[in-house]
Amino acid sequence: MKIKAPAKLNLFLEIRGKRKDGYHNLATLMQPVGLCDEIEISVARKPAYKPALKNGINFECTWPENLMHGEPKPPKEKNLAYRAAVRIAELSGKKTGIRIRVAKNIPAGSGMGGGSSDAAAVIKGLCKMLRFNAGARKIQKIASELGADVPFFLHNGCCLAEGIGEKITGARALWEKKPLWLVLVHPPFQSSTSGAYGRWDLYGSAKKDTGDMANRMVIRKIKKRTPISTGDIVFINDLERAVAAVHPEIDRIKKALDAAGAFASLMTGSGSAVFGIFTKRDGAISAGASLKKIFKPPYTILVIKTL
């Protein structure tokens, strides 16, 4: 079985406060986009593929050097797709060999949810191949335990995520029929999620953007199943200021995207990727070409669209 695991972008991200357990409650509008990791899953009748660990899972993840920016490749045991496979294999109780190959296209440490998307794809794909029906609630619980963004990737299309990311509500986005075009700029560094939230705790929480109130209106529309447009959204990310304080390149990229004609520009997640939104493909392609003259390798510039 071959599966494409899409990246996501946060069209807004509002932090509602820090919880007693150290996590943060948030509200964020998440959108899958046409940049995908490629996953191949196969199941054997025999107990294991060779070589494999005692759990019978043969796992390999390939990372192009330009996606890592000099950072070491994470060990298998920390890979969310591998951990998802182990969890489903254990729960299913089926004595079979499992082989998983992940080819990465989504940059690490970019805020685009590549690892979470891979995990969700493995959960769905492996359950299907093993003919294992754990039930929606159990699958949702497994996803939440693996990572805050994993539950979103179990769904299709634009969704509102609340809590720490486990409460998902599908959004009726008008751009589903006519996709938005995006210019994505990934700078040559990874951004730490814990570091971004830690800096927000120190000073960002006292400087909440007034746009948060407008996005509460969007949230109400989504929950009433009212269609939403880009004009309803205030494109803000509460983590942006915290990351830009350490990496001023974030602000430089945003200004360049705005100058190139984007009607909105925003850092996604905890960074480091920044994107600009365009209504037309030609405008995005033209902007992408101009930005490549400003941000040369090892910066990555991509023109993609919403799914």
Task: List the SSEs and their pairings.
Layout: E1 2-18, E2 24-44, E3 57-62, H1 80-92, E4 97-103, H2 114-129, H3 136-146, H4 150-153, E5 159-163, E6 167-170, E7 181-186, H5 193-202, H6 211-223, H7 240-244, H8 249-259, E8 264-267, E9 274-278, H9 281-294, E10 300-305
Parallel strand pairs: 3-4
Antiparallel strand pairs: 1-2, 2-4, 2-5, 5-6, 7-9, 7-10, 8-9
Helix pairs in contact: 1-2
Notes on the structure:
The protein has 307 residues and is an alpha+beta fold. It folds into two domains: 2-169, Ribosomal Protein S5, domain 2 (2-Layer Sandwich); 174-305, GHMP kinase, C-terminal domain (Alpha-Beta Plaits). It is built from nine helices and ten strands. The chain has helices at 80-92, 114-129, 136-146, 150-153, 193-202, 211-223, 240-244, 249-259, 281-294, and strands spanning 2-18, 24-44, 57-62, 97-103, 159-163, 167-170, 181-186, 264-267, 274-278, 300-305. The strands form two sheets. Strands 1, 2, 3, 4, 5 and 6 form a six-stranded mixed sheet that branches. A hairpin with a 3-residue loop joins strand 5 and strand 6. Helix 1 (80-92) runs parallel beside helix 2. The longest helix has 16 residues, at 114-129. The radius of gyration is 19 Å and the shape is globular.
